[in-house]
Design brief:
Helix content of chain A: under 10%
Largest sheet of chain A: 6 strands, mixed
Number of strands of chain A: 12
Number of helices of chain B: 0
Distance between the termini of chain A: 41 Å
Radius of gyration of chain B: 13 Å
Helix content of chain B: under 10%
Number of strands of chain B: 11
Oligomer: heterodimer
Order of helices and strands of chain A: EEEEEEEEEEEE
Shape of chain A: globular
Largest sheet of chain B: 7 strands, mixed
Chain lengths: 113, 113
């Protein structure tokens, strides 16, 4: 069965520092992968997605992610974090079966000023 | 453009009470979903619908019922609420399942005492 693992439950970075959030997936074929962000008290907003093609995808708010098939990873990165990036980040996988997204357990990002 | 709207935003129930959560989308999406979000568990799919008049079970359907009488609305019902159903509930919609970009509502926080 497909699964998504986000190894880091909490991450703290200083404002202006670079960020990388890890996401590993388990699926036998080419996955569709997503990163969503959830600000406190809000729903989930799509940051970026990977369907096929270029393995480095750009998203909103200056985020990017790189798909690495050999490592079954889809890590999210940002060169310089802003205080407003503090939120919870979810990686998700769509495989077609059951019409559902499989979500990771999320990474809570704290930004220190 | 409102997107996906959930009502109510907050609700407190006593064990055994019933209630209905309403999800409305104005994007003419075919697919709609109900998720629950619990700490450390990410989002789990409760039920989903691939079109008006259709519903299907997701990952954690027990104790919930759904209806999709109109394309724009997807209702989630709890017939006899239990404390284990204390959670944050999210509704989402998408155009189709393929390349499944889902758009989320702001959530309903439910407490069952």
């Amino acid at each position: 069965a497909q699964s998504v693992t986000q190894p880091d439950i909490h991450i703290t970075v200083s404002e202006g520092a670079s960020l990388e959030l890890r996401c590993n997936y388990s699926y036998g074929a080419t996955p569709y992968l997503f990163w969503y962000v959830q600000s406190p008290g809000q729903g989930l907003q799509l940051l970026l997605k990977y369907f096929s093609g270029d393995t480095l995808v750009q998203g909103i708010k200056g985020f990017e992610a790189e798909f690495k098939r050999s490592q079954s990873s889809f890590n999210l990165r940002k060169p310089s974090v802003h205080w407003s990036d503090a939120a919870e980040y979810f990686c998700a996988l769509f495989t077609g079966g059951g019409n559902k997204l499989t979500f990771g357990t999320g990474t809570q990002l704290k930004v220190e000023l | 453009n409102a997107g996906v709207t959930q009502t109510p935003k907050f609700r407190v129930l006593k064990t055994g009470q019933s209630m209905t959560l309403l999800c409305a989308q104005d994007m003419n999406h075919e697919y709609m979903y109900w998720y629950r979000q619990d700490p450390g568990m990410g989002l789990r799919l409760i039920h989903y619908s691939v079109g008006e008049g259709t519903t299907a079970k997701g990952e954690v359907p027990d104790g919930y019922n759904v209806s999709r009488l109109k394309k724009q609305n997807f209702l989630l019902g709890l017939e006899s609420a239990a404390p284990s159903q204390t959670s944050v509930y999210f509704c989402a919609s998408s155009v189709t399942a393929a390349k499944n970009i889902q758009y989320f509502g702001a959530g309903t926080r439910l407490s069952v005492l």
